Amino acid sequence: MQPIISIKGLQKTYASGHRALKGVDLDIRRGEIFALLGPNGAGKTTMIGAICGLVNATGGSVTVDGYDNVRDYREARARIGLVPQELNTDQFESVRATVAFSRGLFGRPRNPALVEQVLRDLSLWDKRDNEIRELSGGMKRRVMIAKALAHEPDILFLDEPTAGVDVELRRDMWAMVRKLRDRGVTIILTTHYIEEAEEMADRVGVIIGGELILVEETSVLMKKLGRKELIVQLAEPLPAIPPELADWHLELTAEGRELRYVFDRHAERTGVPSLLGRLRDLGINFSDLSTHQSSLEEIFVDLVHGRRAA
């Protein structure tokens, strides 16, 4: 199946000389949820702006549903809904008028029923006649999402959509995202709430310093890079790790009361049974065992630190 977005060699160098994007290649599949992760200044927002035609790339190309986003800008942009980080809308317009006007900007005919449905889906219908300036920050964020959906786009970009919003809005938003995906809408999001990417995304991309260093299925990434940690709580503290345990590369923590062992849970031999057997042979008693699986956040932090150290 042809990707709905195809990015080839995308570059952006600002007048200051800063290279925000360094030859990014990426294909976004139709109907998927794709999470773009990266630290501040990594190039996430620049990349979204370049795809949406809001940032002039200095190299490379972007096609949106087969349309070049420079030569066929109007056709490409009409397929995209964008929820930016900043709240930028007329503060004196009503909620309903703002959303209806956004639909008209893309040449869509008036459709009061659809506008009503979008507002109801985002719990905005009761605020339909309120001016934007009267709304809370969370409600204004909902209006931005409604504006992005008003022209029925095939692709929805969510740039840090839940930053600074309440738990209720986050819950409502992800319920809405699931419904949109079920209808075939492709969703690309950036987020600092990495647990959201882990729960929601089909695939994850990591961008650091303007380079896309990794793109992987979320589940495969967890299996490939996720570590499992065995924590052995000792009955008596150890002053140091005995040399007989060197093969397991253990870490002694909690003032000598815990041994930590990192292993690959998918490996044919994890080393756990032999470690526990060696502890018994050495007369090292333990009171409890527990395990911990690395989260996507921990994997991401490791990738960022490894990249910076390289």
From TrEMBL:
Question: SMART domains of this UniProt entry?
Answer: AAA (SM00382)
User: Its Gene Ontology molecular function terms?
Assistant: ATP binding
Q: Which residues span the membrane?
A: none
| Keyword Ubl conjugation listed | no
ABC transporter domain location is 5-234
User: Which Pfam family is one of this chain's hits?
Assistant: ABC_tran
Q: Which domain of life is it from?
A: Bacteria
Keyword check for Transport, yes or no: yes
Q: Which SUPFAM superfamilies match?
A: P-loop containing nucleoside triphosphate hydrolases
For this UniProt record, the keywords arranged alphabetically read as follows: ATP-binding, Nucleotide-binding, Transport
Cited PANTHER family: ABC TRANSPORTER ATP-BINDING PROTEIN
Q: What is this protein called?
A: ABC transporter ATP-binding protein
